[in-house]
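Bit of a strange request maybe. I'm writing a small parser for structure token strings and I need a real example to test against, not something I typed by hand. Could someone generate the tokens for this chain?
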Amino acid sequence: MKVKILLMPLIIVIVVAISIWLVYPTYSNGSTGVKENYTKFKDEQTKLTELLGKSENANSLSSQISSLSEKDVLYNFVPVEKKEEEIVNSLINLASTSGLLLFDEMVNQPAKEIQVVEEPVPAPVPALDANGVTLPVTMSKMQNLKTEIKLAGSYEKIKDFLTSLGKLNRSNVFETLEISKSSSAGQPEADSNILLISAAVNFNVLKNTKLNSSNIGSSILDSPNLETKVISDIKSQKNANNFQLNIEQTGKSNLFQP
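Reply from user aminoacidic:
Good idea to test on real output. This should exercise your parser:
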């Protein structure tokens, strides 16, 4: 009788042990078990939530840009097209308004499309290379249309030209700027104050970027709110990409005069 009483719990223990031995490998085998699949499912669910959030932010930003009354100010400042003719006309008008002689200009085409690689961030749907390694986020970068110009005129007119170029409604930055005295032989005394400008100015272009798996993780889409302060900066004629020129010197209005 006692043996029968002890046998039943023993049988139960054996059955439980066998069940665990049979079921546990299916529950967790280190790779494809229920536990591992559940963890993968939770990870994918988190990525999906992040992806949906990024998508909503992208739609919000797109709607804000479309309804922005002053979006043309931004698109003119950093256009999606090169608009070389517009650059040339702007330089001619600025030189004419400043009273300078523009005797040479050339717009150089960029050698190839340029992309900037941001620091890798956790992307909801990461792009992978052939080896399965996650690729870094890529976004379009501003192209530089290098424009070489040569002008001649007085010191004061040169200052007016540089000031006007800094206030141009298109993003630009000087690559090089050289101002020198004219050294033409037999130059009349009346022209002794004529200076020469040789400069290379980069006008910016920013191509549109399609949203895809390689850039959905960009920090640009972290917020649904569009930052519009740059528009007020452009309207107040502050070329944020241009370095500050300080040609003036205390006690001397023309650095090229003795």
